[in-house]
Design goal:
single chain, alpha+beta, 29% strand, 5-stranded mixed β-barrel, 272 residues, 16 strands, 4-stranded mixed β-sheet
Length: 272
């Protein structure tokens, strides 16, 4: 039977040279709101509703999405009741943490982006707690591969790593299991979701303005990572060039879509 190769896109995506490992005993650094976000872009308000696990509604009508993390979201037509139950449990936990609480928001840059994403801190009498970290610590989210402030990135990766090592929350279920690049049909089961894929690169090829990082000998049947040449400098800045990935084991993360053949767009890279 001829296999029609699915296209898998994920934008953005992180490359990790060898499967990422985390120290469960590592000290998560103390984090201040100033370590994330864009300086004078701070605002605050009261949360009145959790729209879903990644979006909050404020009393003044603003809808704010979490920056820096990806969460379990419902997919149209999803009949997996266990997945739906996990989604509802994560939403309930967020409601408990956030509703009717005063939240300080720090935008990604000097102003909120078009998606309204921000770092969200719960204000208390003596301290502030990053809500994104509160989602990662019990295993209810994944760190996004988007550009992050250095201290925020360290803090969030440690929080995710602890949950991953401990098998907490969704790490204890079938949802954040890392898919294998040699099984593209398994990857397609995550279509429409943020997922992790692990595999060994067999070759790196260039065609026009695109670099293809292949995970199999037959590009028409195996998973492939797509990198636009104009983004190649981002990899070089991280000390990692796409052409040096051949014969290396890497892990990628991003949104899975089907468009004909398994490709994953990768504008950003991070060395392990």
């Amino acid at each position: 039977m001829k296999f029609e190769r699915p296209m898998v896109w994920a934008t953005p995506v992180v490359l990790v040279a060898a499967l990422a490992t985390f120290d469960a005993n590592a000290q998560v650094p103390a984090l201040r709101a100033a370590d994330c976000g864009g300086g004078n872009s701070e605002t605050s308000g009261e949360v009145v509703r959790v729209i879903h696990c990644k979006s909050l509604l404020f009393a003044d009508g603003r809808e704010v999405r979490f920056a820096a993390i990806e969460t379990l979201l419902a997919v149209l037509g999803d009949e997996d009741q266990t997945r739906v139950a996990a989604l509802m449990a994560a939403k309930t936990a967020l409601e408990t943490s956030a509703i009717h609480r005063e939240i300080s928001l720090h935008a990604l840059g000097s102003r909120p982006d078009r998606y309204g994403r921000a770092y969200a801190f719960i204000q208390t009498l003596s301290d502030e707690t990053l809500l994104q970290g509160e989602r990662l610590a019990p295993g209810q989210a994944l760190v996004s591969p988007a550009a992050l402030a250095a201290r925020c990135r360290t803090y969030l990766r440690e929080a995710e790593g602890d949950a991953r090592t401990g098998g907490l929350g969704l790490w204890d279920g079938p949802y954040y299991v890392v898919s294998q690049a040699v099984n593209p049909l398994d990857i397609l089961e995550e279509q429409g979701r943020f997922a992790l894929v692990d595999g060994r690169v067999t070759s790196v090829r260039e065609n026009g303005g695109v670099i293809y990082v292949n995970f199999g000998q037959r590009w028409s049947e195996h998973f492939t990572l797509k990198i636009l040449r104009r983004n190649e400098g981002i990899f070089a800045g991280a000390g990692l060039t796409p052409r040096a990935l051949a014969d290396r084991g890497i892990e990628v993360r991003g949104w899975i879509e089907q468009r004909g053949t398994p490709l994953m767009g990768a504008p950003r890279a991070g060395a392990a």
